[in-house]
Amino acid sequence: LIGHHPSEQKQIHDELDAIFGDDKQRPVTSEDLREMKYLESCLKESQRLYPSVGFITRACEEPFQIGGITFPTGTVVRLSTYCLHRDENVFPKPEEFHPERFFPENAKGRHPFAYIPFSAGPRNCIGQKFALSEEKIVIANILRRFKLKSLDHRDQVALVTELVLRPKNGLRIEFKAR
Asked: Where does the record place it (predicted)?
């Protein structure tokens, strides 16, 4: 998504330049990761639009009711994170890319289960923090060196949900040295 949004990409470049200066080789430190606030917001917004796990499956441990319908114990429930993250009541203009949705002042008051790219509750992904740190390191190292341009429009990318949500035919991205 960053390759579709040059102004957001420029803000990431500015943030990375403020952290690293012209040094394209210095390894990323834990302090650097804490300073990558805008990059983190962009990654969270990308995960909102395209969660790696497109659905979560759970079996009801006790009966519960939603909208007048009772689900008995043992009922298997499947939740689409892809659809949940597009709830207009929580994320206005849900198909648009707006990283500022994840600025602390804008996320304040949002239900903690409105955004669950790593699931939630006692069975959430134990590697969530590691995964986000790893994403930040990889993307930061790429964007310290390159400008990206996505060559396929979002509406042209067919998605498949297997173990993870992924593009059916890959993605075409142009890399230009910075």
From this structure: Endoplasmic reticulum membrane
* Euclidean distance between the first and the last CA atom of the chain, given in angstroms as a whole number: 19
Stated pTM of the model: 0.91
Question: What token pair was written down for 117?
Answer: 């790219």
Report the binding-site residues for heme.
125
CATH dotted code for 2-177: 1.10.630.10
**Tell me, what's the pLDDT at 53?**
87
CA–CA separation, 19 and 22 (whole Å):
9
Helix (H, G, I), strand (E, B) or coil at 16: helix
Chain-wide mean pLDDT for the chain?
A: 94
Q: What pLDDT, in 10s, does the model give residues 27-85?
A: 999 999 999 999 999 999 999 999 998 889 999 999 999 999 999 999 999 999 999 99
> 40 CB contacts (<8 Å, ≥6 apart)?
102, 132, 136
Paired strand residues for 59: 76
Per this entry, what is the length of the chain? 178
Task: Report the binding-site residues.
Answer: 125
